[in-house]
Amino acid sequence: MASLSSNWVRNDSSPRVVDFKAVRCIFESGIKLEAKPQAVAMAATLYHRFFEECNPEDYDHYLIAATCLYLAGKVEENHLKIRDIVNVFHKAIHPKLEPLDLAEEYWLLRDSIVQCELLLLRVLKFQVSVDHPHRYLLHYLKSVQDWMAPDIIAKLPLFRTCWSLLCDFYHLPSCLCYKPQHVAVAIIYLALECYGVTVPYNSDAVLQWHEVNIYVFYHNFISM
Amino acid sequence: MAEPVSFTSSNCRNNVNERPSSCDSNRNIEGTSYANPSPINLVTNSLQDISRKYDGLNFIATGAYGTVYKARDLLNDGQTVALKKVRIPLSEEGVPMNTIREIGLLKQLESFEHPNIVRLLDICHGCYHRPQGQLDIFLVFEHVEQDLANYLEQCPSPGLGPDIIREIMHQLLSGVDFLHSNRIIHRDLKPQNILITRNRQVKLADFGLSRVYGHQILLTPVVVTLWYRAPEVLLQASYAMSVDLWSCGCIFAELFTRKPLFPGKSDPDQLGKIIDIIGTPDETEWPSDVSLSWTSFRHSRGVPFENLIHDISPEGKDLLHKLLTFSPTQRISATNALAHPYFKECELCPLNR
Ligand SMILES: Nc1ncnc2c1ncn2[C@@H]1O[C@H](COP(=O)(O)OP(=O)(O)O)[C@@H](O)[C@H]1O
Ligand SMILES: [Mg+2]
Q: Is A59 close to B4, i.e. CB distance below 8 A?
C-alpha cells in the first residue's frame, strides 16, 4: 500500500511549525500559479478552519494545504489545475527532488486531492465564503495616504509592506479571530509603526485614527 | 505522535457501501452509506453523519430534483427538520465549481437569518456513489408546517380577506427583495415553494441551486408548472430578477381567488392565457429573436383585473398591474413594490413592525 503522507509530512515538528510551513507552501504555490490574492488568502483560511475542527495529528498537512488551494480556486472563481497544484506543491516540499513524472505517484496525489476536497467540504459544511481584508486594506490605505504629506508617502514602500504583513498574518490560526476591517486597520498601523511615521493631527483627535481595538491583535501578531 | 493518515486511493475504493452494523437500516435514508476507510470517513467519528444525527425519516415530497424528508434532529431535542437530498455530480476535477459556489452562497445567506427565508440548519454528506461519480448532499432546513399551496387549499370560504393577503404579500416581497439584494434570482416562485408557518410567517424555499441542478435530468417526470412563469421565460428570451416579480403578481391574484390566474398547459397556451388577460403588448415590447412571434397571438384588449378579482382595492389593483407588466424592464422591482401605497397600512400587521 503506497503511503503518500510519508513523503509529504514531516511529523517531527510541532503543530504550529507544521502549520506555518504548510501555509507558506500555499503562498509559494499560489504565487507560482499566479492565483488571485483572495484565492490564496481563502486557501489559508480554509486550512486553519479545517484544523480548528480536526485533530492535526490525523492528517497530512501538506495534502490538506494543497487541497485548500485547489478548493479556494473554485470558491474564488480562479480555477487552478490539479496537475499544477500537485507539481508546484511537490516542488515546494521537496525543492531538491526531480519533478514528479506522470507515474503512479502523480495519479495517487491527484486522486487524493479530489477525495480530500470532499473531506474539506464535509468538515466545513460548505461554509466557504469569507469576507477578505484585502479590499478594506486597499480602501483604508488610500484614505491614510491622502491624509499624509506626499513627500513622506513617496519615500515609503507602504503598500508593499502592508501586503507582506497581510500575507504573514495568514500563517497562524489566529487569522480566523478578527474582523476583516480590524485586520486591515491593524496592518496599516503596524506598517506605519515599522517606519516610525505618525499620522498628522493625530494627537489632537479625540480618538486615535485607528479607533478599533487592535491591541490584542497587535500583540498576537508580534508574537509570531 | 500518531501515524499520519495515508491517503491512498486503494483505501478509498474499498467498502464504500458498507454500513455500520449498529445502524438500524430501516431508519436510514435509503441508500445512505458510510464510506469506509476513505479519508471522508475519518471524520465520521468526530463529526456526525446524516443517519446518526437525524431519525425517523418520513418522506414529504419528491420534487423535480430532490427528495424532501421530515425527520427529527437528535442533537436538538428531537426538533422536526426537513431534509432535502440533492445529488451532485463529481468529475475528475472533483466537485463542480458552481456547486461549491451556490451551496456556499446559501450558507452565507443563512448568516443574515432573514425572517422570510427558510432556515438552513446544516449540510450533511450522504452516500458517495463512486462508480457513478455522484455524491448525495442533505440540506437540513427547519420544518415548516405547510406550503402556500396547501394553505390556500385548506382555506375556508370566503377566502383570506384583505389584511391577511396584504400581510402575506409583504412578507413574500421582503423575501424576494432579500434574495435579489444578494444577487439570487429565485426563478421558480410558486405556492409550492413558499412555506407558511402556523403564525402565518412566510418563508421562501427551493432557491439558489439552479446551477447545482444544471442540466441534470429530472428525477421524476413531474410537469414543471408554467403557471407562474414570466413571458420572457416562456419566450426563452434573456431574463433577470424581474421574473420573480411576475410570479409574485400571479401569486397575489391567487391569494384572492384561490385559483391560478394563468393555468396554461404548454408554453404557447400559457402565453395565450397571459395575453387574454393583460392584453396584447405593444409590438416593440416583444423580445427579438424568439421562436413565437408577436403575430402568432390573436389580438386581445385584456380583461380589467376587478372583473376577475372582485374584492381587490384600487391600490392592490395598481400593484398587480405593476407586477404583471409584460415588459421585464418596466416591471416593478421588489424594493419598489414594498414601498407601494398598497402597503401603507401594513405597519398595522404585527409581523412587519
Ligand atoms: N422546510 C420545509 N418544511 C416542510 N416542507 C417542506 C420544506 N421544504 C420543502 N418542503 C415541501 O417539499 C416540497 C418540495 O421541496 P422543494 O424544496 O421545493 O424541492 P423541489 O426542488 O423538489 O421542488 C415543497 O413543495 C414543500 O411542500
Ligand atoms: Mg419546489
A: yes
Pairing mode, strands B194-196 and B134-142? unpaired
Q: Which domain CATH number covers A183?
A: 1.10.472
Number of domains in chain A: 2
Domain harbouring A108, CATH code: 1.10.472.10
> Is residue A32 domain-shared with residue A119, that is, in the same domain?
yes
User: Do A6 and A111 lie in a common domain?
Assistant: yes
| pLDDT number for residue B243 | 95
What are the residue ranges of helices labelled H in chain B? 9-13, 50-53, 97-110, 148-154, 162-181, 210-213, 231-234, 242-257, 267-278, 305-308, 314-323, 334-338
Say whether both A38 and A97 belong to one domain.
Answer: yes
CA A188/CA A77 separation, integer angstroms: 28
Q: Is B104 touching A (CB cutoff 8 A)?
A: yes
Sheet strands side by side (includes B120-129): B54-62, B67-73, B79-89, B134-142, B120-129
Give me the DSSP letters along B125-147.
Answer: EEEEETTTTEEEEEEEEE--SEE
Q: What is the pTM of this model?
A: 0.80
Residues of B annotated as part of the active site: 188
Judging contacts by C-beta atoms under 8 Å, the chain A residues touching residue B46 are 53-55
- Looking at the fold, whether A116 and A174 belong to one and the same domain comes out as no
**B346 Cα: distance to centroid of ligand 2 (angstroms):** 28
- Per residue in A158-203, pLDDT (tens digit) is 888 898 888 888 988 888 888 888 888 888 888 888 888 776 655 5
Whether the CA torsion A120, A123, A126, A129 is positive or negative: it is negative
Are residues A72 and A156 located together in one domain of the fold?
Answer: no
Q: Would an 8 Å CB–CB cutoff place B40 in contact with chain A?
A: yes
Q: Which chain A residue is nearest to residue B2, measuring alpha carbons? A: A57
Mark whether A60 and A117 lie in a shared domain. Answer: yes
Q: How many A from CA of B62 to the centre of ligand 2?
A: 9
Give yes or no for a contact between B243 and B230, defined as CB atoms under 8 angstroms apart: yes
For A141, the domain range is 134-222
Nearest by CB to B6, from A5, A77, A119: name it.
Answer: A5
CA A109 to chain B, closest CA, distance in angstroms equals 8
Q: Whose CA is nearest to atom 1 of ligand 1?
A: B143
Of A94, A123, A152, at which residue does a domain stop? A123
The residue to which cell 388577460 is assigned:
B277
Co-location of A11 and A111 in the same domain:
yes
What average pLDDT values come out for chain B (353 residues) when binned by 10 residues? Answer: 28 29 29 33 44 79 80 89 90 89 90 96 86 88 96 92 95 97 91 96 89 56 79 89 96 97 94 96 91 90 94 96 97 97 71 47
B158 upstream amide cis, omega within 30 of 0: yes
CB–CB of A214/A133 below 8 Å?
A: no
Q: Is residue A128 part of a domain?
A: no
Domain boundary residue among A98, A123, A148? A123
Cβ contact A119–B9 (<8 Å): no
B14 touches chain A (CB under 8 A): no
- Do the chains contact at A122 and B40, CB–CB below 8 Å? yes
* A11 and A115 belong to one structural domain: yes
